């Protein structure tokens, strides 16, 4: 045997196996079905299992994949107990050395909230890629198969890490991503314009940095979901007063996020009610109802949420209260 052949054989022995990508299904429109192919809005979400979604993407058949169904719901109905199960499932899969990355199929309605929750609880060193669809699987031109294909490519990208959202050919950071359109297939934006990457014909082109952060850890969210702090969101608008806040305080609210106008500004009656709530032990944070931009933490004003949207500020406040 020639030395060339020996070298070739030894090189083959040293080849690193393709990383295993684990797909975790939670339902959503991507798994939805309608009675007719022309019906893009009158569908029922969460009808197909994750194995069915993979079967619809022949280009993934050669990939080393594993699928598990964690939940089966319309993401408008996402709840704390499902977040707990999902975080535990993601953590368990990431701990397996052969797993290179995770893909989570999800509904679009609360996708940004789940992404931020996983980011803050886990801050994984391996990629966790959430994806979804705006059209059901039975649509004339479903967007789910392409989004799922792209998400797997992102999860298998060498050096990728953190929680991201792969949708319509773009990869968003969990902190920045927001759903900004109710119908279009490109429904998500990075609100300050800083995309992590693009997926082009199956190739991932990195534009920024993979997200990193400090995790609070799974132990923080192990308390029974029924006993998690109650944190609600109130919004500032023309004619806003404090009656909603007062009613929530009477109901025993633990925290409030105020979605203010502009730089977190609040009508005087609403601001007064929130300060009264704070004096009674309710944690209050100011965010903004604007699609983008931070809220400045200025002297004399209620605490600011920075660049977090109201729904993400709510998650952050829940995590803070869970530590108390």
TrEMBL record:
Source organism, top-level taxon: Bacteria
Record's keyword terms, sorted: Hydrolase
Pfam entry (one): Asparaginase_C
PROSITE patterns membership: ASN_GLN_ASE_1, ASN_GLN_ASE_2, ASN_GLN_ASE_3
Active site (catalytic residues): 29, 108
Residue intervals of the L-asparaginase N-terminal domain: 21-206
Statement: the UniProt record of this protein carries the keyword Hydrolase: yes
Gene3D superfamilies the record matches: 3.40.50.40, L-asparaginase, N-terminal domain
SUPFAM superfamilies: Glutaminase/Asparaginase
Xref: PANTHER family: 60 KDA LYSOPHOSPHOLIPASE (PTHR11707:SF28), L-ASPARAGINASE (PTHR11707)
Protein name: Asparaginase
């Amino acid at each position: 045997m020639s030395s060339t052949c020996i070298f070739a054989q030894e090189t083959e022995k040293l080849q690193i196996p393709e990383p295993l990508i684990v797909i975790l299904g939670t339902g959503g429109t991507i798994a939805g079905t309608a009675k007719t192919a022309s019906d893009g809005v009158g569908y029922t979400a969460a009808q197909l299992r994750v194995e069915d979604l993979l079967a619809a993407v022949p280009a993934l058949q050669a990939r080393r994949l594993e699928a598990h169904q964690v939940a089966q719901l319309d993401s408008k109905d996402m709840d704390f107990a499902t977040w707990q199960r999902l975080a535990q499932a993601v953590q368990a899969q990431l701990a397996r050395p052969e797993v290179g990355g995770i893909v989570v199929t999800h509904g679009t309605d609360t996708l940004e909230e789940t992404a931020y929750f996983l980011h803050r609880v886990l801050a994984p060193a391996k990629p966790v890629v959430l994806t979804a669809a705006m059209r059901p699987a039975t649509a004339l031109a479903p967007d789910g198969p392409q989004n799922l294909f792209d998400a797997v490519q992102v999860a298998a990208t060498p050096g990728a890490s953190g929680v991201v959202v792969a949708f319509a050919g773009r990869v968003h950071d969990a902190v920045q991503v927001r759903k900004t359109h109710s119908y279009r297939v490109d429904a998500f934006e990075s609100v300050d314009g800083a995309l992590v990457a693009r997926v082009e014909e199956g190739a991932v082109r990195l534009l920024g940095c993979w997200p990193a952060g400090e995790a609070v850890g799974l132990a923080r969210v192990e308390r029974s979901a029924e006993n998690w702090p109650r944190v609600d969101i109130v919004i500032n608008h023309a004619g806003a007063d404090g009656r909603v806040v007062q009613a929530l305080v009477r109901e025993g609210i633990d925290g409030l996020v105020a979605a203010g106008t502009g730089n977190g500004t609040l009508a005087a009656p609403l601001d007064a009610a929130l300060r009264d709530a704070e004096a009674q032990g309710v944690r209050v944070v100011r965010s903004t109802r604007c699609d983008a931009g931070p809220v400045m933490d200025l002297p004399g004003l209620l605490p600011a949420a920075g660049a977090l949207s109201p729904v993400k500020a709510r998650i952050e406040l829940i995590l803070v209260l869970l530590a108390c």
